[in-house]
Amino acid sequence: MFINELNKKEAVHFINLFQSLANADESFAESEEELLMEYMEELSVNKEDIKVTSFNNSVECLKQCNDRIKNIIYFELLGLALTDGSYDKREIDLLNNIANEFSISSSKQKDFLDYFKRLNELYNSDFFNFEGKIQSLKEEAEKLI
Q1: Rounded to the nearest 5 degrees, what angle is found at the Cα of 53, between the Cα atoms of 47 and 58?
Q2: How many angstroms separate the CA atoms of 96 and 100, rounded?
Q3: pLDDT tens-place string over residues 13-50
Q4: DSSP-derived secondary structure letter, 52
Q5: Is 46 helix (H, G, I), strand (E, B) or coil?
Q6: How large is the C-alpha radius of gyration of the chain?
Q7: pLDDT > 90: what percent of the chain?
Q8: How far apart, in Å, are the Cα atoms of 30 and each of 35, 59, 116?
Q9: Contact indicator for 98, 65 with CB cutoff of 8 Å
Q10: Alpha helix (H) residue ranges in the chain
Q11: CA 46, CA 127: separation in Å to the nearest integer?
């Protein structure tokens, strides 16, 4: 939703974190692969641009970003962790590590998680006023970031 705000360097480190998180449960799901391709397209990053680096190096580089960029990265990674329907301990540990390094408060983390719960409820509900609900969620996400 906001990922296009990242510059090229931030985008490359985000992709590295994405891959680390997606592989944390030792299962790179098809939905995660599709999402990775969508992110790379939205970020105008191709495979040749990706310089594989360690999780810790990517986190360290991204710690220097402003709070909005760090919130966007965490928000998107949390969404990824919830994509495959499983949210295992290794993914939680990685997300907690990122949140800690990015100084994202536990209340902000909870707000993000609650947002994705509401998004899931929307997708599992009837389509009454679907467009209005989507717009409302976009506005809510903007306030969270």
Answers
A1: 105
A2: 6
A3: 999 999 999 888 776 767 778 888 899 999 998 888 88
A4: -
A5: coil
A6: 15
A7: 47
A8: 9, 25, 20
A9: no
A10: 8-24, 30-42, 55-62, 67-83, 89-101, 106-123, 130-144
A11: 36
